[in-house]
Amino acid sequence: MKILIVEDEPSMVELLRYNLESEGFEVCSALDGEEAWLCIEEQKPDMVLLDWMLPKLSGIEICRRLRRDQEFRNLPVIMITARGEESDRVRGLDVGADDYVSKPFSPAELMARIRAVLRRHNPNMSNDNITVADVVMDLVAYKVSRDGRELHLGPTEFKLLRFFMERAGRVLTREQLLDGVWGQNVYVEDRTVDVHIRRLRKALNEDNDVDLIRTVRAVGYCFEKGDSNKKAS
Description:
Helices cover 40% and strands 21% of the residues. The longest helix has 15 residues, at 107-121. The chain starts with a strand and ends in a 10-residue tail after the last strand. It folds into 2 domains: 2-121, Response regulator (Rossmann fold, 3-Layer(aba) Sandwich); 129-223, Arc Repressor Mutant, subunit A, CATH 1.10.10. By secondary structure, the protein is of the alpha/beta class. Helix 6 crosses helix 7 (174-182) and helix 6 (155-165) packs across helix 8. Strand 11 and strand 12 form a beta hairpin. The mean pLDDT is 84. Strands 2-1-3-4-5 form a 5-stranded parallel sheet, with helices on both faces. The protein is built from 8 helices and 12 strands.
C-alpha cells in the first residue's frame, strides 16, 4: 500500500519513510501543501500522513479539500503535528482527519495507528489475512484460497492479487499496477500487466466462478467486492 508523507522537515520525512518502508509500505512524499495535492491527484495514495503547519497550503485546508472531493473523500488521513492542545486535536478531527498524532511520537505507536485506520477503512484486512468475496490471502503462510480451494500462484501473481485485494472496488490503471507491483524504477511494458492478469484469472477461476477481475475498457482493471462465487445460471 502507498502512503503519502506531507511534511516540511526533511529529517522527519526520512524518519517516517524508514519506518514505513520497514513495515512493507510504499512511500511518496511532499514538502508543501501544493505539492501534496498534486501527489494525491497523480499518485493516488492509500493513506496520507499530514503535517498541520505546511508552506503554501495548510494541512487543515488539504483535509478540507479531500473531504469535499468526490474521488478522495474517503482517503484515510492521519494528522501529525506539534500542535497538541485539545482544541487543535478537536479541530483536526472535525475537518475530517481519521486520527491525530502529536509530536514527538513513538514510531511503534504511529505504525499501530496506521494499521488501525487502514483496518477501519477496509474491514476485510487484518494483520495476517486479507479477505475479499470468497478469496482469502494468508500473508504469513503465503497461501491463497478461493471458496476453500487452494490456489497456486507465482510470485508476481501473488503480489498482483495482493495489490488488487488491498484496493478492492477501485479501478486501477495499468500504470498504477506497474508502479505498485513491479516498482516505479523498473521498465515493464503495459502488455506485461495483461499477461499476468490472464494468469491470475486462470488461477482464480474455475468453470462456474464469477470473474472477480473486471476489465474497464480504456482504463484498467477492478477487483470486485462481490460476495457470490458462482455464475448465474
